[in-house]
Amino acid sequence: MDDREPQHQDHDLVSDAGDEIKGMAKDGLNHPSTKPVLTGAAIGAIAGGVLPVVTWPLGLVAGAGFMLYKRLRP
Asked: Residue 14 domain-assigned?
């Protein structure tokens, strides 16, 4: 078993996400996470529109959430 802690485990994901969302809201498109998260939201919405079980709003939220997670925990 590996005794080393992963580098990204030193912070709480929820508080990190809140800080990132606040920064994105404050800085708008100038924030480095805004464009990737919006791209993920668009891709998720398109996928949600194509897939028969998932609706586009659910795909939008899932895509944005995934990209935000990948920005916080690469």
From this structure: no
Element (H, E) at 26: helix 13-27
pTM for this prediction: 0.76
Which residue range is the domain that position 65 belongs to?
Answer: 33-74
> 35-51: per-residue pLDDT in tens?
999 999 999 999 999 98
Total tally of structural domains belonging to the chain = 1
CB 68 within 8 A of CB 61: no
Q: Is the pLDDT of residue 15 over 90?
A: no
Q: Which residue's entry shows tokens 């990190």?
A: 16
Residue 52: inside a domain, yes or no? yes
Contacts by 69-73, CB closer than 8 A, 24 or more apart: 69/13, 69/17, 70/36, 71/20, 71/33, 71/36, 71/37, 72/8, 72/13, 72/16, 72/17, 72/20, 73/8, 73/13
